[in-house]
Batch of 2 targets.
Target 1
Amino acid sequence: MCNWAVVALSHASHRMKGSLRMSLSGVLRAIVASLAGLWLTTGHVLAAGQNLVINGDFARAGDPPPGWVEEREAASKGTLRVSNGVLELFPNAANTPSAKPLGIGQAIDASAMAGKTMTISARIGLRAPATGAVVGLHALRADGSEIGMVHLRRAQSGDGLETETGALVIPPNEAPKLLILFAVAEGLGGAAQFGSITVTSESVSAPRAVATPTIATGYAAKVTVDATAHGRAIPRDLYGVNVEWWRNANGLWDERGDRLDPGVVQLTKALRPSLIRFPGGFLGDAYAWREATGPRKDRPAMVANPGSGEKGKPNFGTDELVQFAGAIDANLLLSANLGTGTAKMAADWVRYMKNLRQAHPDGPRVQWWEMGNELYHKGDASGGSLTPEAYADKLQTFAREMRAVDPSIRIGAIGMENYPTFPFNSYRDWDEIVLKRAGSDIDFLAVHNAYAPVGPDDRANPLDVYRALWAAPLMIADNLRTVAEQIRRYAPSDRVEHIRIAVTEWAPLFQVVPSSAWIDHSKTLGSALYVADVLRVFIQNDRVDTATFFKLNEPSFLGLIGVRSGAWAPNASYYAFQLYTEHFGTTLLSSRVEGPTYDSVQAGIVPAMKRVPLLESVASLSADGSRLYVILINKSANQPAEIALGIGGFDAVSGDAQLLTGASPDSNTGTELPRVPGIQWARQVNVDSSARQFDHGAPSEVTFTSVPLPRVGKAFSYRLPPHSVVSLELRLKR
């Protein structure tokens, strides 16, 4: 589980009370609110110009510098100095993570900024032991709600200042009031350095339509498939899922019946995942696997969340995991506790699994061993965060002892290439250092780069958010190419082709706080399109061999399987996942799409993107060559796709369409958020405020049907409804 989701998930899926830990984004939002309040009380309005920042070059010194303001409470957390055009912030021991870190800010009148792109630039430096230097720009409405934001951050110390740039688009239909600019220091010592801070504006070139148009006809597209152009054998391990140990594996274990929950088992068998990652997210770096073995009645309570101190009875441990994997015919990816555990603990777990395998040769196999979770994040909830150097050295020790027990195991390091809008990895050069120091000891690099949209504004145009979600796979594909290039550049030469990529957590994820109007949108048809398209990205990247969706089941807002009327039930993404496990082949084929594109605006961590294809496709061939599959994804919210298909090298005589569709992008199967004392879930956004499809979720609102194709051959047409995904299965004459 991603660390920034920990607290909200904890509240949502278990009866807990207590205060939320404030994430980085929460801290910065509080800074924005504080600075906006200062502006309202001081009347600090700035004149517009080519550079909208007053004294951004720090030519005039002062404490604070002229044009800037400092929160009174933050002033006790360090000192500042301006010299030679550089602002230096020197945090002290009082500068612990809070809503008011050491820093300065100013407010810019944004009343004329609708339809503008705000470009921000700053020279940023860092001296250890400071942990971060951040320049942020937030756009606010008159009521203080947020339109959007951009952050420039340096987390690595070094000589000199480096120029960072970013952009913030303010849509034409918005009514901005303020731009809040700030520069803050993170850490308890050292210095954060800033210079040449500029904010400029330019008009958005092509205003977008903000209302859903009524269009009677569809758009034309062409899909060409070459059945003779074979790509790679599609790894079955791309169809994996995460299972967590705590809270009875989120209900997978029926504690009252002392058994696997039959409902989850039945639905999982039909889903056919190939791989199970365990024990789940940051939980793995606080997991004492040995304590979760033996008779369940004798197992002691274990710490689940070191941050909150939450403990749980480990009723679902290694033996129960093996039982479940055997029941659904899946293999295992285990996450070793590298954060707070020892190499001996990990080696003993390898030995335990090896002995189980020898005793039951037909049972599930441990395919992969992942060394830790998100230990590159300084706020890691397990408390086991490491520098890349310390991580690489510790991994080598673990690998040596684990392979001494079983030389056949495949070991993976963790890594992450940050997105510009979301620098979650605290170390910019993490991948480089780990690959250089430990590349000879690993078989794969595990990344968590496929969560989206993560944090859209509650007031955002709902269709804009979904269009951004559907654009995100392009961002993910580009990130994976960067990671592959890092492997080629930094791994030892004899390991470059050997080291694979595993995406061990990924999912549609909108929000994690109960007060968000987006928190439950991970279950919608629009999210299912994202699932289908991300799987396409994984399949078409030859370096990606493994992926595990986060997560299989949960009685809350994440999971392919949720709860409806007290019983386990699939959501829309379940069916998108099943399209690949049940209605797709084993050999990748060449396919090409010709059709229109769209431009998306920023939503959450997804930046504004250009030329996003409205239609995506991926094709495959069955193992015996008798069936050809084409999965098509229509990302238009309101137009059907009129698709002309050309199939070369395959003489189909019949076929079926497995179609996943519904009335609206926010249509859903009606799975429910749990009733938790002390937690009030926000009313959720509806794409159409009059139809309110989200509110009317029910099994009939999302349809997954099989329909015979009336005509197939070398050339035929298919009409794919808006916001829908289909698998066309074409068959040779028997």
Target 2
Amino acid sequence: MRQLDKVLVANRGEIALRVMRSCKAMGIATVAVYSDADADAPFVRFADEAVRIGPPPARESYLVINALLDAARTTGAHAIHPGYGFLSENAAFAEAVTDAGLIFVGPPAGVIAKLGSKREAKRIARAAGVPTVPGYDGEDQAEGAFVAAARDIGFPILVKASAGGGGKGMRVVRQPGELAEAIERARNEATSAFGDGTLLLERYVDRPRHIEIQILGDQHGELVHLWERECSIQRRHQKVIEESPSPALDETRRAAMGRAAVELGRAVGYVGAGTVEFITDPQGAFYFLEVNTRLQVEHPVTELVTGLDLVAEQIRIARGEHLGYAAAPPQRGWAIEVRLCAEDPERDYLPTTGTALAVDVPPTIRADLGVAAGSEIGIHYDSMLGKLIAHGPTRRDAAQLLRRVLDETWLPGLVTNREHLARILAHPAFLAGELDTHFLERHAGELAAPMPGLDRLRVAAIAATLYGIAKRAEAVPLAPPGWRNVRFSDQRVTYKLGETELELGYRPTDAGIDVAIGGKTTHVGRFGLDGDRLWFVEHAGHRRQVRVAASGDRIWVLSEGLLLALVEVPRFADATAGAVAGALTAPMPGKVVKVLVAVGQEVVAGTPLVVLEAMKMEHTVRAAAAGIVRVLHVAVGDQVDGDRVLAIVTP
């Protein structure tokens, strides 16, 4: 058995923390590597040692093999754990690690090379007798070859990157005229994310379920599967919610898929943790999709239903230990995981940025988070902040527990998908197990955020005002709340929530504070603030509890699962402020990777103007109406903030 006393984790965020926690539980020292953007990140603070490897862009830090190997040599690490993403499925990296005399916590480079290529993996699957989706995985990567293949396969088709995963470099093409742009965009994303622009085509199966099998193999020929995970709730081909068991499988199909995954693993001599992904059609047939030769984001659901620590198992296997069991432990209960992301579901899941003013998740579930209070969420990396995972005796038990935790999770300072996740978990179709990869599109209207009711707006505005009073009282304890020279005149404050304005008046009385809002007056008899937890008692003795945080003119209020960001309107507005006619703005912070028009050019509505890259995804800004490009404010390579004016198009 090889010595393994110190592990360098070649990753960041929540997965770096996750790996380090298992290492520490096993008595293994840990080393973090970090870019300048992550210098004070939680995973860096948690590690025993940390080494800077470069500036924020991943291609200059987390994807630089020599920098990672140098960090391992400097710190005396015995092994490197790649986590997921970045170089985790890069055969050259695995080979470089072993050539340096270190242990790579993952499959051998040769296995990664075979299965990490989706083209080669499909060929291996076919040879092993595993059903595959019709498609094209040829060596000829010219556009003409793809056009000819697509004609033979038939539309719709899926253009996908041969390397990597996580939905990067994937496009659904329903018409021949869309193919060229899809190929270019998919190739660009794949090259940016994985350093490999090789593509393949597959027949696109409508209404598929995405079900995967976890496999685990040691260096002595023992290979088992650890049951399935259902990952059908997706957006942009990226998983949003995962669970185990799958509500779609009976014992016969579960066993058949497990056998297929193990046979595929045996065909290549698989070692370590891996995932064999399948899609199933509405009739129940299953088809091989790909193999992820690494730990998956969603591995916690398998851990909760089997009782195994998959990171610890990876390390045991890397040390040369025997697996020690010939079959998976029986499934216990039900586990559901949601991915908490810095993104806005109401704006087509655009990435968001900001500072996490607080991070607090109820302790009734497992929370694998990569952020803490004060964490800066920027544009350089994936939008996922972490995962919340619930385990219960039944699927409904797990879903109810997780939904309640989402309602109580406190993460002010930026927009996330927290409430969207809670709505999915409560949807009747989800609870009935009626899932496929189009679930979010099909139920988009029902899952859209409802407009907050008047009572919720009223509670938020009152809470924001009481929070301000309490904070001012802390600073000037002798001043009564709302004190004014004119005794019978209300103190007034105005908040904006989007385009809605809320005007509130309040005045102190001998028995508390009278608050007037929306033409109605309520009496607050008592209130208090403990940290960010505010409580107040209003009419009929109704006690309410909320959480409040403030940054600048923005006040975040969490009440009954709804997080509202109120903007306090200054009493004396800037008369020069206003929108620019014809302005096209950046929907989120990012880097300009393409400028597709020139000043003076005539465009029609929908014409692509500028392409931004943020969090490893590309986003196109298009003309809102026909006109002439009057001004371009950006060039390729510029870093832009959200809402910055990129171009002006007017008739």
